[in-house]
Design brief:
2 domains, Neuraminidase, 29 strands, mainly beta, Immunoglobulin-like, 4-stranded antiparallel sheet, 10-stranded mixed sheet, single chain
Length: about 400
């Protein structure tokens, strides 16, 4: 589709709220992140997810992910592109918005919102509390964009300001989530991770919340969840449920914190969404979209209980002409099935259906008897399903 056009940019002022304690905590957390140290959290139990299904992202730099009840919408941060995809990863439509850097996405009712991580104006419009920390940098005005997916245009936008102090203008606006009547935008503005609460009707920032560490945000079963920021660049390898609280029991001073139980990932993710039954993530490190299992209980060290973990490598060579090798590694002895499917979803070959010992294994698929085209290798073990796309050439 054609390039999206801005129809409105309505500025508003962020309310300057907070007390000295909150500011000090935010600053402390930020510098812990810069030194690659996560703040201490008392964890009584750690859970993990395993991948039930996955497909390749069409984006060279995947970031945002949301679900409208039928299809996924997926953003690429550096190209200003949104993909509409079905649950099998087939791209149904593409929307291009030049001069944007699109990150987290969410549906708020029927409206699609996406974070634009490029400043549209560097003018200082108001001085936030971090100015009191001897910051002399400018503050960029950024925006979240409302997308008309039917026509592929930007139908509205909300502008807000955030600081880039101390670390320069880097990509530090990450995610957006919908919770009750508000939108929540996660960012790191130079003095610690924060989340802005925005009323989409009045276009006002109603709260500036810290000190949780969200990257992507999503509403899951009427609760706000996040991919936890793991470094100043954003992507994280755990999922957390968030909780609102009052600073010093003052109902006028609201904060956002992570609940104690963490849910570990085997990759770095940028965004998450919910299809009504399962969480899906954007796997930033492997450029994939993944459907996750229900949480599996583990001990605090992160080792799973009775969980046959399988790691499936990309087939090689790919394209195949006519054969390709499928490599996989098991953490423990487990039953494994390896099947080949065509694009119609028909199983055309079975390479394995037996027990394998822990360790690395390979299987070879000979495609000499099949037509050139796209095929899928699906490996199942212990309730986990992993799929890799293969191309057969002749």
């Amino acid at each position: 589709m054609g390039a999206g056009q801005y129809q409105s940019h309505i500025p508003f002022e962020i309310r300057n709220k907070g007390n000295a304690m909150r500011r000090a905590i935010c600053v402390g957390i930020f510098f812990l992140i810069l030194s690659s140290q996560l703040p201490t959290v008392t964890i009584s139990q750690s859970d993990t997810f395993i991948t039930l299904y996955e497909f390749d992202s069409p984006s060279p730099s995947p970031w945002g992910l949301t679900f409208d009840g039928e299809n996924f919408f997926h953003s690429t941060d550096s190209l200003g592109v949104i993909y509409k995809m079905n649950p099998d990863g087939l791209v149904l439509d593409t929307y291009s918005f030049p001069n944007t850097c699109l990150k987290g996405m969410t549906f708020h009712g029927d409206d699609l919102w996406v974070v634009n991580d490029i400043a549209i104006d560097d003018t200082v419009v108001y001085t936030p509390w971090s100015h009191s920390l001897n910051d002399s940098s400018k503050y960029g005005i950024y925006s979240i964009l409302k997308i008309d997916a039917e026509n592929g245009i930007i139908s509205d936008s909300i502008r807000f300001m955030y600081p880039s102090a101390g670390i320069g203008k880097m990509d530090h606006i990450w995610g957006i989530g919908s919770y009750k009547s508000k939108l929540y935008v996660s960012y790191n503005g130079g003095y610690g991770p924060c989340t802005l609460e925005i009323d989409p009707l009045t276009k006002q920032v109603t709260e500036e919340l810290c000190c949780a560490h969200p990257c992507g945000l999503s509403n899951i079963n009427n609760n706000l969840w996040c991919v936890r920021m793991n470094s100043v660049t954003g992507p994280g390898n755990s999922i957390r449920e968030l909780d609102f609280f009052y600073w010093n029991n003052d109902p006028t001073e609201t904060g956002l914190k992570e609940k104690d139980t963490r849910y570990e990932l085997d990759c770095y993710a940028t965004d998450l969404t919910f299809d009504g039954e399962n969480i899906w993530i954007c796997d930033y490190s492997n450029k994939k979209i993944k459907k996750l299992s229900k949480p599996i209980s583990t001990n605090v060290m992160g080792k799973s209980k009775n969980l046959p973990i399988i790691n499936l490598e990309q087939t090689y060579p790919n394209p195949a002409n006519p054969s390709t090798t499928i490599g996989f590694t098991l953490a423990e002895t487990a039953h494994v099935s390896i099947d080949i499917y065509n694009t119609a979803g028909q199983k055309i070959d079975t390479l394995a259906d037996s027990e394998f010992a822990a360790g690395k294994h390979t299987a070879v698929w000979d495609g000499a008897a099949y037509a050139a085209g796209v095929y899928f290798c699906t490996v199942r073990s212990g309730g986990r399903t992993v799929t890799r796309k293969m191309v057969l050439v002749k």
